[in-house]
Amino acid sequence: MDTVSGAHGTGAQRWSARLAFVAVAAAAVVLLLFAGLKSVALVAFGIGGLVVCAACMWWGLTRRGFGRVLAIVVAVIAPVAVLVLYALAGLLWVAIVTVLLWAVAVSAGGAALGVDIQPARTPEFRIAAPRRPFLIMNPRSGGGKVGRFGLKEKAEALGSDVLLLDAAHPQDVVQLARRAVADGADLLGVAGGDGTQALVAGVAAEHDIPYMVISAGTRNHFALDLGLDRDDPATCLDALSDGVELRIDLGFIGDRAFVNNASFGAYAAVVQSPAYRDDKVHTTLQLLPDLLTHQSGPRLTVRAEGVVIDGPQAVLVSNNPYRMGDRAGTGRRERLDSGVLGVLGIKVDSAAQAAGMLRGHQAPGLTALTTRELVVDADEPEVPVGLDGEAVTLPTPVRCRIEPGALRVRVPRRRPGVPRTKPPVDWRRLLKLAAPGHGTVRRSADTDR
User: Fold this and answer.
1) What is the pLDDT of residues 189-236, one digit of tens each?
2) 74, 52 in Cβ contact below 8 A?
């Protein structure tokens, strides 16, 4: 149970909450005072423009040739046309001021609900420094970060055995890691992308020895959620001499571990194409129409704890859930030890359903849940899967599960940490917070996960 109490933030919270409602009231006053009955049309045209834009984007993705061009042109023209109508009616400034006031309301509301709320932290354990650490480094990863930051030399100076991967001679990192453990390594680590991180992390979990992440990949999503420094991967090496241990969960798809997520459906099928690496945009636009309309690719069925998602175009299964509104690619997980998988399924079969996605997490085509296990089945014997950014093909049905606390991760004692994502604005809670005489707000920590 998290608590928002009066010692440090209650006064500031109360006034921030009140500012949010003042901004909402001011937006309503501006609309009614300067637009009158036209305010209804003002809002209707704005919503209509968004709906048309979303519907046309769907048509643009599911069509080729002239139909695609026309849909994209209309998607661009629709919001511009709304702004032109506002300007002709002399209401453009009203719309701008109203939007700004709503932005102030949402910002103030988020600040009020976020002050002094501290999520439970993953427990840290002080353990002895490793005596025989073994690190695998990919010199090509992240545009050459291993060489640019002198990671090999710095790690060796700290007593590590370092193996540099050779792109000209592909090596099995799982076998390399297992051989190192057999030779006495008491810590495994990787400087490379998340796909390689996952493979070696699986070996560390298998042998119950610590694992170390060095943020030398391109995106470093795993390092981000561990609170590591992504700008200077050399700071990750501090874990060797001044580190603490975290116990975190590990996702599995069959017997293969994943640290971030596994994606099924359209995206996974696109990245499997041989042409994708050379021309990502053209390949994506060429393949999406058939994939999104179920004319090609497997038809998926997802089953998890009594919930069935039939025929989704995309499914994301993550090792711990992402924050709502902060999903795949740019998403962040506040915890890596909640003991559950996050599941996000998207099913859009028409332009109307595409427009319905504007409702966010309440959209009927969006399914979000958490579970310990799930099964992804299909009408084909194999399905493409994007596994921590790596393209693989797996036999169906595909079983995904989570192993709570399976991975021992050694991180620097001093590290940036995981920035807290602001909670969504809950207007009912905000109203209670703004009420006169309010002292303390209590809430379940689960509501913000």
Assistant:
1) 999 999 999 999 999 999 999 999 999 988 889 999 999 998 999 999
2) yes
Distance of alpha carbon 350 from the chain centroid: 26
CA dihedral sign, ordered 60, 62, 65, 67: negative
Q: What is the pLDDT of residue 3?
A: 38
Q: Which of 46-60, 247-261, 277-291 has the highest mean pLDDT?
A: 247-261
- The vertex-316 CA angle with 315 and 320, nearest 5°, equals 145
Radius of gyration, alpha carbons of the chain: 25
Per-residue b/e over 349-384, b at no fewer than 16 CB within 10 Å? eebebbbbbeeeeebebbbebbbeebebbbeeeebb
Q: How far apart are CA 17 and CA 77, in angstroms?
A: 37
Helix%, strand%, coil% for the chain, nearest 5: 45, 25, 35
Q: With contact defined as beta carbons under 8 Å apart, do 214 and 236 qualify?
A: yes
Terminal Cα distance for the chain, rounded: 13
DSSP state at residue 139:
T
Helices (DSSP H) in 36-148: which residue ranges?
Answer: 38-62, 65-88, 92-114, 145-148
Question: CA–CA separation, 84 vs 137, rounded Å?
Answer: 56
Here the tokens at position 223 are: 């390092």
Cβ–Cβ < 8 Å for 158, 241: yes
Two structure tokens written together for 423? 């909670």
